[in-house]
């Protein structure tokens, strides 16, 4: 049986210090020695994923922007999808008019644009993903540009209300909360599950034989589309109640623990 392993990054592959543990790194290397593909799946941009690969000395196909951009092991684009400039401008104008307590971030390809790079929330994100934003606006992009994602960094007390307002206003995009402070806005029908299915098809592997790890609501569709889903113990209780297969937390080497439990390593 051919299999493949997909893993979310923050809260899953990386621990609370945003680092990969030695045991997790060894598990990924062990998969490679058995010719079992390991694929990183993240809401991050490619530039926020490359440092993980470089520091931990392995190659991987990449699903970035929660499925909006799919790259092969050599970094070549398999698929890039999102929404247009007009939609992006409408979303940003809505956020501005309602004075939401959030900082919007625009991602197009590997370009990360913010209004004010000195914003503490942006600086925190730069430290976590080890990539740099640039000051600018959506007007800096060409009219035919694809917006792969708008990320809203929110006041944690208002994340849910901002998410609700955005979902009520914009039916032509996919909106999902990925943490207590983050809301991801992607093109319609762009999901981690879609990208997982595409990579499985390209590699000739049945989704029922695939394994996936995740920890939050934007991982739910991915976990439900594979035959062997594992939810990290640090996931929200609502998800833990919904998805029955759990592993240890991201601070307890949950990925290698589960892979050993099922005899894959």
Please tag this protein with its features.
265 residues, alpha/beta, globular, 13 strands, 7-stranded mixed sheet, 6-stranded mixed sheet
Structure explained in plain terms:
The strands form two sheets. The protein has a seven-stranded mixed sheet with strand order 5-4-3-2-1-12-13. It has helices at 9-13, 22-33, 50-56, 85-97, 120-129, 159-169, 192-203, 220-225, 237-242, 254-261; strands at 4-7, 38-41, 61-64, 69-71, 77-80, 102-108, 111-114, 134-135, 149-154, 173-177, 182-187, 210-214, 228-231. The mean pLDDT is 95. Helix 3 (50-56) links the parallel strand 2 (38-41) and strand 3 (61-64). 45% of the residues are buried. Helix 2 (22-33) crosses helix 10 (254-261). It has ten helices and 13 strands. The chain is globular and about 55 Å long.
Quote the distance from N terminus to C terminus: 15 Å
Helix coverage percent? 25-40%
Give the count of helical stretches: 10
Shape: globular
What's the short version?
With 265 residues, the protein is an alpha/beta fold. It is built from 10 helices and 13 strands. It has helices at residues 9-13, 22-33, 50-56, 85-97, 120-129, 159-169, 192-203, 220-225, 237-242, 254-261; strands spanning 4-7, 38-41, 61-64, 69-71, 77-80, 102-108, 111-114, 134-135, 149-154, 173-177, 182-187, 210-214, 228-231.
